[in-house]
Amino acid sequence: MNTIPPIKRLGTKLIIYSIITALIPIVMLGAVSTDTINTEMTKQAQEKINDDLNTAESVVNLKLDKISSLNKYIISNDNTITSLKNNNTVELKTLAISYKNTSAPDFVVFFDGQGNVVARSNSDVTGDNSYEDLFKKVVNSTGYTSIEVLDKDSIKYENVAELVNIDIKGTEDSIDYSDSVQDSAMALVSIEPIYDKNGKLLGAAMAADILNKDYSIVDTVKDASKDATTIFLDGVRISTNVQDNGGRAIGTLVSEEVYNHVVLDGKTYYGRAFVVNEWYLTAYEPIYDSDNKIIGMLFVGTPESKFLALQANVRNQTFVVGLIGLLIALIVSYLINRGIIKPLEQLKQGAEWVSNGRYDQKVIVDSDDEFGELAKAFNKMATQINISDEKLKKHAEELKTSYNELKELDKLKSELIAIVSHELRTPLTSIKGYVELVLDGTMGTINDSQKKCLQVADDNIVRLRRLIESMLDLSKIERGELEMYREKVNLKAIVCDVIEYLKPLATEKNIKLNKEVEDIAIEADKDRITQVLTNLIENAIKFSPANESILVSGVLEEEHIHLKVTDRGAGIPKKDMEKIFNRFYQVDSSTKRKKGGSGLGLAVCKSIVEAHKGSIWVESELGKGSTFHIILPISTKD
Ligand code: ADP
User: 471 in ligand 1 pocket by Cβ < 6 Å?
Assistant: First the structure.
């Protein structure tokens, strides 16, 4: 069973990593392409706007050239000069009408030498000096053609109100730039002086083409550029190719920001602008009159939507590329998943089988890559473990059988020792009794050598009996039958008794037995503690040289009594210090031979001390002596 939470699984991580790996370049690509397209868009838009401006200017210039040519033709015409010279106003009017009809200016006006109107194409009114300012500029000079503002007073006799008047819609809060232009005309004006052969100023001719509501320029530009073009008189739209509610969007006002920038500050404005009903990328250029005064603006604009569509297109393409990238990432992670995770899961399953002891189950990875190799090695390992496991089980079975047999044998041995020891003890007691009877002369007098022989026999009987006692004790211990009779005993008294008992043995070697034992009562089996102390002191006597002394001490330490038996004997090699507490262990065979003994004493002591929940150990220095330590709890209650 898979216990790893889904988010932590290698497969999940792989999918996440793949998605991240796929997304990073896509996002970067998206950012870079958006940035590039924005830059490109701005550049293209700027170029387009400049192109549009140039186109619009060219169209205006063409128109100016046309009207200039017409006027030049007018003043060079002999009829004009003769009629002006003769003040033939009727003829002049005819000429004015004819010029107007052939070359389509909105009106033609003739002036006399003082600038008074002598004939006009659009009415019979004469004698006014409506165009005084314009006329003055050509006196003693050449003519000129330019864009001019003709205010409503100057054109009042031209019958062009129909062409000029525009309803101004809306206001701009902080400025009022509409009043000054109300009913004024922006016009392409050409005015040329007319001289006689002697160079005397006869008058002048003026042709004017009103731009208000004249859409020829803006439509020509639209034909060429497909974009929006508008002519402003001051801040009011007077001609445009932008449609609004089915008509031309004229009469509306430019924004204050653009007005200030272009009309007041005289700079070309580039930027976004909301025109009628959509956003445009625009340029507004000032229009100057012949006095270099800004009289309006030329606007060109290209709808932003074209470029936004391009941008959206790129964004969509990036999105599609992103989706494809993601899809590829998912497919790749799926394939990796199949190639790595599946074999890994198989191997994990295999490891679980092995840990559950199902070595016969085989991991199936049929790829011929490293995983395939790993699976083969894994299966081989499982087979080997299976074989070893079978062997181990067999050995364990054998061991168990052997162990049981040994245990049985050991039990038999202990029983045998117990029986034999027990059976030996009775006759031995009887033998000892009889030997003592003979030795003490009860059975009659014996000579010295007989006595010596019997004494040796008696000593060996004692040794034999002690050996049997020890063997009996040990077999009891092994069978858990060593019984303890715990009572309050005085340790000092026990030590005194043991010393008293062993004094003869010590005296034989002139060894002094000293004691420094505190008067302490403990809970213990008196006979067994006596047995332990007897054994330790006896050993001390046995392994001490003659004329030495042995010290038995006992002090109270917290809840324990600490007993020490110290001699200045042969000492015990370090390597043997623990082993001497094992059964039948003696330091070396020569000692054994010299000193006798069975190697059982200390083993019995250890068992007795431990049965009292105490501990026993030895500290010794070779050649200097040994100290046997015993720790016994004062009370054995837990
Ligand atoms: P044994 O009957 O041989 O004395 P023990 O179990 O009492 O058996 O002692 C085991 C061995 O430990 C001894 O044979 C001896 O080599 C060593 N040993 C015991 N007590 C001393 C001691 N006081 N000094 C030196 N060696 C000792």
Answer: no
Q: Which residue has the tokens 């796929």?
A: 22
**Cα–Cα distance list, 131 to 33, 84, 116, 198 (Å):** 59, 18, 8, 26
Distance, in Å, from the CA atom of 79 to the CA atom of 205, rounded to the nearest integer, reads 13
Give the burial string for 321-346 (b: 16+ CB within 10 Å, else e): ebeebeeebeeebeebbeeebebbeb
Identify the residue whose C-alpha is closest to ligand 1 atom 11: 586
Q: Which amino acid is at 20?
A: I
Q: Is the CB of 582 under 6 A from ligand 1?
A: no
For residue 627 and ligand 1, the question of a CB distance below 6 A is answered with no
- Find out whether the beta carbon of 469 lies less than 6 Å from any atom of ligand 1: no
In Å, what is the CA distance from 74 to each residue of 70, 99, 102, 291? 6, 8, 12, 24
Q: What is the DSSP string of 228-253?
A: EEEEEETTEEEEES-EETTEE--S-B
Counting ligand 1 atoms within 8 A of each CB, the residue from 473, 511, 535, 539 with the most, and so the one to mutate, is 539
Q: Say how many C-beta atoms besides its own lie within 10 A of residue 2's C-beta.
A: 9
Distance 421 CA to ligand 1 centre (A): 22
**Separation between Cα atoms, residue 74 and residue 72, nearest integer Å:** 5
Beta bridge partners of 591: none
Residue 487 phi/psi, 5-degree rounding, is: -155, 170
**Domains of the chain with bracketed CATH:** 26-308 (3.30.450.20), 483-633 (3.30.565.10)
Q: Give the DSSP letter of residue 580.
A: G
Look up residue 31 and give its amino acid. A
Contact by Cβ (8 Å): 473, 457: no
Is residue 244 within 8 Å of residue 267, measured between CB atoms?
A: no
Tens-digit pLDDT profile for residues 196-238? 888 889 999 999 999 999 999 999 988 888 889 999 999 899 9
Distance of CA 581 from the midpoint of ligand 1 (Å): 9
Tokens linked to 380: 């081989």
Tens digits of residue pLDDT in 360-403: 888 887 778 888 888 888 889 989 988 998 999 999 999 999 99
